[in-house]
Amino acid sequence: MRILMRNSPPEFAQSQGSVGAPDVSDALLAQLYAAEPAADGVWLRVNMVSTVDGAAQGEDGVTDGINNVPDKRVFHALRSYADVIVVGAGTVRAEGYRPTTKPIVVLSRSGEVPATLRGADPGQVLMATVEHAPGLEEARQLLGDEYVLVLGAYAIDFALLRTALAARGWSQVLSEGGPYALHDMVASGAVDELCLTIVPRLIAGEHKRITSGPPIDVPLEPLLLLEEDGTLIGRWAVRQTAPRVGL
User: Fold this and answer.
1) Helix-strand-coil percent breakdown of the chain, rounded to 5?
2) Cβ-proximal residues to 119 (8 Å cutoff; 6+ apart), any chain
3) pTM of the shown model
4) Residue-wise pLDDT tens digits, 125-167
5) For residue 178, is the peptide bond before it cis, meaning its omega torsion is within 30 degrees of 0?
6) Cα angle value 132/179/117 (rounded, 5°)
7) What whole-number distance in Å separates Cα of residue 124 and Cα of residue 92?
């Protein structure tokens, strides 16, 4: 893995490593992805993968159909840097998520706890949902009241999500989508950074992109571009046009 481009604005931790460096060690990778929390005490990055022609999934309908060794290296690295993982319930079900060593916050307007995450130890799985979620009471019974975050009436308020995560001492937040969750988080101004792996493949067909939903237009600032065997691994700051609520 080599560095093709690196840019460190003042709000990002300064890192070592020069453009063209032929090998990126695990220690250097950690420096290249270091970031200081925003004013509210949280840094929320989203990590996604796509083919060159924009598919965020393979023929099997999951990311495992398109990701590769370089992508998996960064995927696991970003998880190791995070305090908590945030992911949409649809992605949890499609990808078969199971409890990990890091807490998982599931985003769900229905409040239904995915089957693969039921039975986890207390605190391993949290539910971020809404007041009118039909599965709210069951989620409380399964996970415990303190692990169910009610963040709005009918739609999840992502500013409140950031506040709730900060209150638990989780400053480094990693979201793994999926496409609808990424759309809503970016549209709400909740995301600080997008990490995207572009695998060197064209697969055509009808596949989800990394975002799904009504049109949005959010500018990105490139921060880092790595390459290995044709796979491009990038890091972009999300430049919101308006300040977040509470900042």
Assistant:
1) 25, 25, 50
2) none
3) 0.91
4) 999 999 999 999 999 999 999 999 999 999 999 999 999 999 9
5) yes
6) 60
7) 14
- Are residues 48 and 210 in contact, defined by beta-carbon separation less than 8 angstroms? yes
Residue (of 27, 25, 45, 20) closest to 35 by Cα position:
45
Structural domains in the chain, CATH included, are: 2-13+35-238 (3.40.430.10)
pLDDT at 57: 86
Q: Are 165 and 76 in contact (CB under 8 A)?
A: no
pLDDT tens, residue by residue, 200-211: 999 998 888 999
Stretch (H or E) spanning 166: helix 158-167
CA–CA dist 158, 98 (Å, integer) = 24
Residue 192 tokens read as: 């600080």
Give the pLDDT confidence score for residue 225 in this predicted structure: 97
pLDDT of residue 76: 97
Residue 8 dihedral angles phi and psi, to the nearest 5°: -120, 95
Residue ranges, the chain, pLDDT below 70: 8-18, 20-21, 241-247
Tell which residue, 123, 211, 200, has the closest CA to residue 169.
123
